[in-house]
């Protein structure tokens, strides 16, 4: 039985380390690309000291995020076992002993916090703030509808701030606003995806209690609003005279098309029920979305650095 294999103090199962690494969800580290965003827009690509600091901040934030993933799996183990997809995760499936998962959670939090402190108190404040926010989210805030999505958005804001503080550059107001709107859009999309996967009220309560308080109609309105607000803000940013002066080019507006496509593609992925565990997992398997993201990144770098 899974419960027997997870008794603290028992010998680790074969493949427990591999299971632990999987439970850390390194594929989700793509979200921490927001830590690197300030490097790109601060014209830091090619500057070795700036790239090094940005890379270290990315790694430390990834360790912090993985510690939270492990903590969430430990806290939600019974609910995850009732989930059609999450029950196959290493911790609820019994592949990783509870003691091992708890030790890894603490170790990753300490490494992330200590490393951030060495980079400066502002970086430490951003990463520790993220950890504290996520602990509050795990044990309380995730049960409050819409506040839970705000917590997700706040986590992305802290990623951008950590990246800016690591480089000792002032965070762009536009970057913070677009990040907030985009993360709200992604968060509401995640809840929509979960609602449609759950189906019945009983399954909603089993998989995530807060889902019973969500309305699909309300989520549709919020998704449409945040989609328009995200793309609208990005358009304003690219056309702002200060932006054009900072980068010395008018061509950044040419990247708007990629932003529009990405938002519309995400809406399409959320609208159609899938077997993916989350919209993020679905996006990482969707070639049109991935190719669009790559083309957007190439276009942004080309415009900022080579025009």
How would you describe the overall organization of this protein?
By secondary structure, this protein is mainly alpha-helical. It has 2 domains: 1-171, UbiA prenyltransferase (Tetracycline Repressor, domain 2), CATH 1.10.357.140; 172-307. It is 72% helix and 0% strand. The chain is built from 15 helices and no strands. It has helices at 2-5, 16-23, 33-41, 48-75, 77-81, 98-119, 121-139, 147-167, 173-198, 201-207, 216-239, 241-247, 256-271, 279-284, 287-306. It is globular. The protein starts with a helix and ends with a helix.
In short:
The protein has 307 residues and is mostly helical. It has 2 domains: 1-171, Orthogonal Bundle (Tetracycline Repressor, domain 2), CATH 1.10.357.140; 172-307.
CATH architecture of the largest domain: Orthogonal Bundle
Q: How many E-type strands?
A: 0
Number of helices: 15
Low-confidence stretches: 1-10
CATH class of the largest domain: Mainly Alpha
Question: How many domains make up the 3D coordinates?
Answer: 2
CATH fold-level topology of the largest domain: Tetracycline Repressor, domain 2
Largest sheet: none
Q: How would you describe the shape?
A: globular
Order of helices and strands: HHHHHHHHHHHHHHH
Mean pLDDT level: 88
Distance between the termini: 61 Å
Round the Cα radius of gyration to an integer and report it.
20 Å
Assign a percent range to the helix content. Answer: over 70%
Structural class of the helices, strands and pairings?
A: mainly alpha
* Proportion of strand residues: under 5%
Instruction: Identify the CATH homologous superfamily of the largest domain.
Output: UbiA prenyltransferase
């Amino acid at each position: 039985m899974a419960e027997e294999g997870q008794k603290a103090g028992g010998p680790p199962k074969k493949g427990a380390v591999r299971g632990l690494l999987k439970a850390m969800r390194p594929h989700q580290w793509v979200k921490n690309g927001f830590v690197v965003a300030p490097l790109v827009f601060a014209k830091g690509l090619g500057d070795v000291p700036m790239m090094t600091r940005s890379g270290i901040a990315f790694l430390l934030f990834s360790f912090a995020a993985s510690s939270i993933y492990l903590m969430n799996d430990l806290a939600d183990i019974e609910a995850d076992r009732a989930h059609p997809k999450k029950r196959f995760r290493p911790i609820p499936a019994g592949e990783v002993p509870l003691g091992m998962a708890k030790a890894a959670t603490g170790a990753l939090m300490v490494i992330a916090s200590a490393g951030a402190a060495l980079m400066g108190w502002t970086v430490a404040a951003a990463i520790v703030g993220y950890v504290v926010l996520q602990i509050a989210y795990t044990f309380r805030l995730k049960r409050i509808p819409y506040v839970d999505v705000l917590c997700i958005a706040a986590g992305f804001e802290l990623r951008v701030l950590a990246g800016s503080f690591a480089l000792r550059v002032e965070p762009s107001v536009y970057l913070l606003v677009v990040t907030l709107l985009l993360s709200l859009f992604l968060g509401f999309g995640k809840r929509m995806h979960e609602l449609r996967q759950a189906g019945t009220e009983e399954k909603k309560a089993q998989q995530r209690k807060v889902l019973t308080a969500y309305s699909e109609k309300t989520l549709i309105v919020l998704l449409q609003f945040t989609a328009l607000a995200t793309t609208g803000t990005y358009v304003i940013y690219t056309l702002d005279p200060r932006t054009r002066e900072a980068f010395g080019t008018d061509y950044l507006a040419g990247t708007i098309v990629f932003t529009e496509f990405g938002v519309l593609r995400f809406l399409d992925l959320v609208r159609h029920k899938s077997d993916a565990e989350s919209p993020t997992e679905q996006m990482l398997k969707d070639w049109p979305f991935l190719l669009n993201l790559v083309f957007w990144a190439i276009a942004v770098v080309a415009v900022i650095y080579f025009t």
